[in-house]
Specification:
The chain is built from 15 helices and twelve strands. Helix content is 47%, strand content 15%. It has three domains: 2-91, no CATH class; 137-196 and 412-428, no CATH class; 205-406, P-loop containing nucleotide triphosphate hydrolases (Rossmann fold, 3-Layer(aba) Sandwich). The strands form two sheets. Strands 4, 5, 6, 7, 8, 9, 10, 11 and 12 form a nine-stranded mixed β-sheet that branches. Strands 1-3-2 form a three-stranded antiparallel β-sheet. 31% of the residues are buried.
């Protein structure tokens, strides 16, 4: 029997190391959490009779007057690898921990002061028990997830293949499960190659908004650094080409970022378009009244993060302006969680559509597409560069899905990742 100690940052990583080195037949003997992470003691070629024999010797060593046979008869068999905190683990009898002699209880006078040590020890024991139960639960979740995923691959190999393909494309687990639920009951291996792309494409809502058409009154909102001002310049340039500079106006409500208004005014001078400032809801209403009748009015807003206290002020500016079409700008190269937080932060504005920017700066579009599908946002445009006005296009669902499918083409997710993403949900179901 070969016993080895594994130390990792969390239980999933520890279990992955155990499987890689000792294989699926490894037996977990014990787990322990400490400052550096999690400790797992695992064994291969596990011999239960050997462990019982070692246990009998341990009992005999603790009670010299009790023969090993008597210890075995009384059923005094401690769990495998009995050990104390800080000691190394071995199956040798010589390494069994010595027992300390506990003094007889001493009667203590009544009072809060005498109860304090007992209460502190109870609290410590409770906290330690919670940690151990948490470790045990995490271990069971890892094992159940792996079993559930392996069972699905055996019973539904084509459906699991579709989930693996969506994971390779970077689609979030909840969205992948939602899309997989739309699969037909029966399909063949050839269909399994293309079904994920078709389902993903149909799930992306596209507004079909034409770049050459008038934009009306549109406010571009979103976090800082997503490219709102550059996108406004591209839209304004397109509008000037098709309707003339006198039919286009720009409005700036970004008075937080240094140089924001100057950047928009620079674009306005290049295009021959006037830029109007608006500082609050009242001044914005006056500006919009002045510009009534223009076929394109584009409003540049301040980039505010989802947790920023100024977000409420930014949203308040657009209160009472029902004729303004809010368009949420999202950077495709941001993390999926950051994109999701941004969408939730700007939901009070009820954005009618969104624009995906920086497609040229992201290796994987899956996270951005997942957020758009999850919140049922309609896509207006996509941008993939800094050139004005060339690097902007009307959103095309098929083109986006093909672009996502081409990224990371040879990086198939392994079973560990698939079990972590889908296994526990399957086991719970």
């Amino acid at each position: 029997m070969k016993i080895k100690r594994f130390v990792a940052a969390d239980m999933r990583q520890a279990m992955r190391e155990v499987r890689e080195e000792q294989g699926p037949e490894a037996v977990i003997l014990s787990t322990r959490r400490f400052a550096e992470g999690i400790e797992v003691i695992a064994a291969i070629d596990y011999d239960e009779s050997l462990m019982r024999e070692a246990s009998r010797h341990n009992v005999a060593a603790v009670n010299p007057g009790t023969p090993a046979s008597t210890a075995a008869a009384t059923g005094a068999t401690p769990p495998p690898l009995a050990r104390t905190r800080g000691q190394s683990v071995s199956n040798s009898p010589s390494t069994s921990p010595a027992l300390s002699v506990v003094p007889a209880p001493v009667a203590l006078p009544e009072g809060t002061a005498t109860m304090q040590p007992m209460m502190e020890q109870t609290a410590k024991d409770t906290a330690r028990m919670r940690v151990e139960l948490g470790d045990l639960r995490e271990l069971l979740e890892v094992q159940l997830s792996s079993l559930a995923w392996n069972d699905m691959e055996r019973r539904q190999p084509l459906r699991s293949r579709v989930l693996r393909e969506m994971t390779r494309m970077g689609i979030e687990a909840d969205v992948a499960n939602q899309l997989a639920a739309a699969l037909p009951d029966k399909f063949n291996a050839e269909q399994a190659r293309y079904l994920p792309l078709g389902i993903l494409s149909r799930s992306l809502a596209v507004s079909g908004r034409d770049l050459s058409a008038g934009q009306g009154v549109t406010a571009l909102v979103g976090p800082t650094g997503v490219g709102k001002t550059t996108t406004i310049a591209k839209l304004a340039a397109r509008a000037v080409l098709h309707g003339g500079a006198d039919q286009v106006a720009l409005v700036s409500t970004d008075h937080y970022r240094i140089g924001a208004a100057a950047q928009l005014e620079h674009y306005g001078r290049l295009l021959g378009v006037r830029v109007y400032p608006a500082y609050d809801a009242e001044s914005l209403h006056k500006v919009l009244e002045l510009l009534r009748g223009r076929h394109t009015v584009l409003i540049d807003t301040a980039g505010v993060a989802s947790g920023d206290s100024r977000l409420a002020q930014q949203l308040e500016i657009f209160s009472g302006t029902g004729d303004v079409r809010a368009c949420l700008v999202l950077a495709a190269n941001a993390q999926a969680q950051a994109l999701d937080d941004a969408v939730r932060a700007y939901l009070p504005l009820k954005p009618s559509a969104c624009i995906l920017t920086k497609l040229d700066e992201t290796p994987n579009l899956g996270g951005a597409l997942s957020v758009v599908i999850r919140h049922r946002l309609s896509l207006d445009y996509t941008t993939d560069g800094q050139r004005v006005p060339e690097d902007i296009a009307t959103a095309d669902a098929r083109a986006l899905v093909c672009r996502a499918a081409q990224a990371l083409k040879n990086h198939l997710p392994d079973d560990e990742l698939m079990a972590e993403r889908f296994g526990f949900a399957m086991a719970s179901a």
